[in-house]
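A protein record in our archive is deliberately plain, so that people and models can read it alike. The tokens are whole numbers drawn from a learned vocabulary of local backbone shapes. For reference, a complete record is included directly beneath this paragraph.
>
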Amino acid sequence: MPVPTPRFFALLASLCFAAAGGLSARAQDSGATATPQQEVKDTYHGVAVVDPYRWLENANDPKVHAWSLAQDARSRTYLDGLAVRQPIFDQLMKQISATSSRYYALYAAGGKVFALLNQPPKQQPMIVVMESGADPLKARIVVNPNVLNDKGTTAIDWFVPSPDGRLVAVSLSDNGSEDGTLHIFDVASGKQVSEVIARVQYPTGGGSLAWRADSAGFWYTRYPGPDRPAQEQHFFQEVYFHRLGDDPAMDTYVLGKGFPKVAEISLKNRGNPHLILVTVGNGDGGEYAHFVIYPDNHSLQLTHFEDKVVAATVAADGTVYLVSHKDALRGKLLSLTLEDPILAHAKLLVPESEAVIQPGGEFGGEPVVVTAGAIYVRELLGGPARVAIFDHDGHPKGNLPLPEASAVEEVEPVADGSLLYSIETYLRPPYFARFDEKTGKTAETALAQTSPVSFADAEVVREFASSKDGTRIPLNIVRRKGTKLDGSNPVLLNGYGGFALSMTPEFLGPSTRLWLDAGGVFVIANLRGGGEFGEQWHEAGELTRKQNVFDDFIASAQYLIAQKYTAPERLAIIGGSNGGLLMGAALTQRPDLFRAVVSRVGIYDMLRVELDPNGAFNTTEYGSVKDPGQFKALYAYSPYHHVNQGTAYPAIFMATGETDGRVNPAHSRKMIARLQAAAAPGRPVYLSINSHAGHGIGSALSIRVNLQADTYAFLFDQLGMRLPGNAPSRP
């Protein structure tokens, strides 16, 4: 059968659009297929709002599918036609494949150390086990998704080894969906054993598991089944207990009835296998409640959402350690005994300081780790990290040794009494160091990644922009030594600014090396809405204060221009997810400031986002149109509603995945349609849609590298850059 051409898809789309009826607005972006407008009017608090592309929200509509195919085909024709695209892909894939194995997500259990192993060019990370010395030369693969699915589209969402180290529970999902099913594997043989349990993991709400101390069963999170309407089946998480060998349908309900619809539940007992610490997030806004589950399945509530306790852990002796934001927006450390579990009776161990105690959460490691000898507290100083050491009475005992401007995501006590902790910087690949509590000495371990790219000729400087209200915004500027500040450098500015997530140092790798080699400068902005300076920094960029984030980013761009790092015609911006919202706001509020925009899996229609399949999780961060004040703020910056006809927008490349359960791909479809219809002729607007990808978590290596190649080929073309040793970007 002949392979359909992009022209075929465009013809198919136009036929479907004709059948659809409605006003087919002429696309200002030359080459883009005109998208029909079918106006829908909504009224919010007396304000009428017209939505011309509501029909693009229905992913099951054949017309929407045809439109998506046409958009992706058009993007492929452009990107694959760039002479620089294939050399960029080849270089990135070669360098990533030559990067050594990386071990991360360490978990000590049963006298062993389990870890995820990323081993390019394999498509997916694997679970390995090592002896307590954590010697990677003796690592053995236990679960290999690349064998389970040779297409590389099955991913590990999370794993938890049993306390005796004989079994490992694993959530597996396909095509980047993060829609996980629980499997149990025997560590010795690598074979799957026991029962498969469905509905344990889904995007945003996540999933979790904690084993019973005797390894004979476990507590786990479960989503509703057919007993609830389809639109509720990815909410209302609850905790169940499963005994190995039993029918999962007979599992015991333990906790969760009465929790919010948007509850995000985490279970852990790494510090004490006899007590299950349950953390319940109230959506994504940073409010948490905490419970303890005892071996007989009865539970005790320790904190409530209004208590402002953002993290907790239970030590081996049963002491509960709590990170509190009450009257301490950068965090303070409390201790509580289960014999007297009243929060008001908690003891203050570590008062608030100039450092921010990290809150943990979905993408953060444990903020507090307790051993028999000390308490280790992971902290931030505006982005860079430190790990403070205290005795059990809260007296300071120094810090773990770290290089300047580094990040620590993991601190894992192991059986020999030492700790393994991860270290990552912008310019060096990640590695683990071992800290000996008895001697106080630290040594690097063999758990270290190597890379074929070197940044010996590069430097990272930290400068500050002044936002609209005078707030100082840190900029982490990565450049080659000796870079001239003459306004001619291509600059790529990245930001996020939301959900208290901090932009901490991480190895920049082959893609940034490529950018620097082509004469570029890469900049990461620490914007309000993040967690770099504590909860006050986060609160200043959430709900009705979200505009502060966009002001911070625009001020960052203006600073780079004023300091002659670049000029508007040489400035590109990039962001994803909440950072995609940032891209949409930046390009609609200051289209004159940027030459090119790359936005991945972004949110753009802020009046409809809470109606998305998982949109309710975001209302604690963004707000709701049901509230008059929050509606006013949302409508004031919603990118989709501020696309203006005839505006000279930057060149735009958006990317989304059809299986994205965190951000509805409809946002990208609607935003692209509106931009293509409105943008003044001259600069293109492209959308890439991958049917085997979701939000990016769990995507196969080949999908990730292809997206990187698309991104940099687009940027090289729009900014007139050359790949060293190659021809210009266009044939």
